[in-house]
């Protein structure tokens, strides 16, 4: 089984979006460099960010997100982001009316079912869990192996928290990667068991 990684871009004070679900400058690092990160050529990062991010993206077999993110992005028009093979959506509602059943999106009820389904789909590849409420639930349930953060030099003051509304203390190991890129600091932690 591949590892489960909670991932997202985050402000220095721990937010993945403002109170209106707007990411503000959190994704500026994805257009501030000279190296194309994907085939579109629109996502351009520093060489350091490319060397850290591209190999990770290539390992992802499935991404887990909540229905809120799915709705905000209009389901990425049925095409998973960043070349991911499958998206597992945690929701208590069915797929949207008119949704193409052949699209590689899977709608499940609950975070544990989502991780199980994503692991099945990903095989030996990484299961990525989006930061926020769903990621925090997965962390609290002991389902996350690693936390990856792209820390952006901005302070939001309030908004949507990286770990959602997770309660209690959860220990991480010392960071095993701390890499500065253009407008971003990439940090990676293993979850202490």
UniProtKB/TrEMBL annotation:
The protein's name: Dihydrofolate reductase
Signal peptide location: none
Molecular function terms, GO-annotated: 5-amino-6-(5-phosphoribosylamino)uracil reductase activity
Highest classification ranks of the organism: Bacteria, Bacillati, Actinomycetota, Actinomycetes, Micromonosporales
Gene3D superfamilies according to UniProt: Dihydrofolate Reductase, subunit A
Domain Bacterial bifunctional deaminase-reductase C-terminal residues, every copy: 111-170
Xref: Pfam families: RibD_C
GO biological process: riboflavin biosynthetic process
């Amino acid at each position: 089984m591949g590892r489960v990684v909670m991932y997202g871009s985050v402000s220095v004070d721990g937010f993945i979006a403002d109170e209106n679900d707007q990411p503000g400058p959190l994704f500026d690092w994805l257009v501030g460099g000279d190296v194309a990160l994907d085939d579109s050529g629109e996502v351009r990062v520093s060489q350091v960010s490319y060397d850290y991010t591209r190999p990770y993206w290539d390992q992802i077999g499935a991404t887990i997100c909540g229905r809120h993110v799915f709705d905000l992005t209009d389901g990425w028009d049925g095409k998973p982001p960043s070349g991911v093979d499958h998206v597992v959506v945690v929701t208590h509602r069915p797929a949207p009316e008119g949704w193409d059943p052949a699209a590689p999106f899977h709608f499940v009820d609950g975070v544990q079912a989502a991780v199980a389904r994503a692991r099945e789909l990903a095989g030996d590849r990484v299961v990525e869990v989006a930061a926020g409420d769903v990621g925090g639930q997965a962390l609290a349930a002991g389902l996350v192996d690693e936390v990856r953060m792209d820390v952006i030099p901005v302070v939001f003051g309030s908004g949507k928290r990286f770990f959602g509304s997770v309660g209690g203390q959860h220990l991480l190991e010392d960071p095993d990667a701390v890499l500065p890129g253009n407008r971003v600091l990439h940090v990676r932690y293993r979850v202490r068991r």
